[in-house]
Each structure stands twice: as C-alpha cells, then as structure tokens.
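wait is this the right file?? whatever heres the structure
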C-alpha cells in the first residue's frame, strides 16, 4: 500500500505507531530507507507549502500511522496560547532546513526528527526574551495574571464563607431554553467588589 508518492501535495505529518514502511527518495531511486515504529515524517508540511519528494509504502502485513492534518493543525494552532512559540519554532525549523539544503528540492520527507525538534524546542524555551522578540512572554504574563486572580478570588470567597457561616450560599434559579432550570451560586458583592 502506498501512503504518498513523489509530487503529491503534503497535507499531513505522519507518526508511525505500528509496522514497517519503506521510503524511496526520488533523487536516489536505488535506495530504500526503512521507516518503522516511533519514526515521524513530513513535519515540514506543517511549517511550509510542501510537495512530497519520495514514495512511502507499507512493507509489513499491517501498519498504523497517526496523521496530523495540516489544515486542522493550523486551525488549532491559530487559537492556541502557544501560537507565538509555534511561529518561532517554524522559523527556526525552516532556517535550519535552508542551512542544510540551500536548494530545498534536495530535502526529503524524512528530514527532521526527534533530535532536531528537541534542539529547537530547547532554544525557544531557554532563550532570553530579547532573543525571541518577547516570544510568548505576553501570553505567559496573561496566564499568570489570570491564575493569580483566580487564587485571590478563591481566597476571598473562602474568607467570606468562614466569616458568614450562618448564611448558606443561596442559589438563583435561571431558565435555560435547552436545559430548563439550572442552579447558579450567587457571588456576594463584597467578593466581586475587590477584583472588578
């Protein structure tokens, strides 16, 4: 069975979870490279417009591949809190590719792998803010601010209830067109007033 062949548009990254496959690179047709469980390939399809440079086919009786669709990945990544880190990862990945392959047509679908991904990830997350143009700093600060606010609100809520043990929490019943009546806790104004 053929997974993809030379010239096809790269629409996914693949993780091999079971079985044995072979990759035939178009610039070395006499060489078949083994691809097995725990390998991944076509990562470059996530970061750039990609056209397959070889043929991937299944050799073993059964094989299982996890497929990460490019369009789905981009849709999820565009709303992710780490999208700036992903953008920086893509830039570093492509810079490395251009260093190793000045002519990207010489690059194969197997290029990259775990060692490269780990190296780039370490560069991104250990870098000083000025090295990565404040990469992810705003996202992190926003997350930290929200986490601190939640902690303060919880502490204030707990403090309020300890002081007001004789008054149980009242529930407001509100109608929902889909679910009928739903109980919601009424948050005392004294608690809300501290933070909003």
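ok assuming it is, sequence goes like this
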């Amino acid at each position: 069975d053929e997974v993809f062949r030379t010239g096809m548009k790269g629409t996914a990254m693949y993780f091999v979870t079971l079985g044995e496959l072979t990759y035939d690179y178009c610039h070395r047709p006499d060489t078949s490279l083994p691809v097995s469980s725990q390998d991944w390939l076509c990562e470059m399809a996530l970061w750039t417009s990609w056209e397959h440079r070889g043929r991937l086919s299944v050799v073993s009786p059964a094989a299982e591949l996890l497929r990460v669709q490019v369009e789905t990945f981009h849709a999820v990544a565009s709303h992710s809190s780490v999208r700036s880190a992903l953008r920086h990862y893509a830039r570093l990945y492509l810079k490395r590719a251009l260093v190793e392959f000045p002519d990207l047509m010489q690059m194969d679908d197997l290029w990259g792998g775990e060692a490269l991904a780990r190296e780039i990830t370490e560069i991104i997350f250990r870098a000083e803010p000025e090295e990565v143009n404040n990469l992810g700093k705003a996202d992190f600060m926003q997350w930290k601010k929200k986490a601190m606010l939640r902690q303060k609100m919880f502490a204030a809520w707990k403090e309020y209830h300890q002081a007001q043990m004789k008054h149980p929490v009242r529930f407001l019943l509100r109608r929902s067109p889909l679910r009928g009546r739903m109980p919601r806790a009424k948050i005392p104004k004294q608690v809300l007033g501290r933070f909003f």
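Residues 137-163 form the longest helix (27 residues). so i think its the right one actually
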